[in-house]
Amino acid sequence: MKAHPTSPQHLALQAVARALQTAQRSEAYFAEYRKHHSIVEPDANGQIVRHYPDGRSVVLRKMRTQ
Prior knowledge:
Number of strands: 3
Order of helices and strands: HEEE
Strand content: 15-25%
Strand order of the largest sheet: 1-2-3
Largest sheet: 3 strands, antiparallel
Helix content: 40-55%
Shape: elongated
């Protein structure tokens, strides 16, 4: 069964398709950006780390343990 172009199901499928395309473009852009720029993000241990394109990582802040 095909959804009518103005049906809620059709509009929802279009929105999901657009969101997936945007996510794919964002992932590609971010992957390319990381090749040339350092980024700061939390790591698996909860530390704030700067990652450099050459593979180095520098811990900027360690999270306090309670």
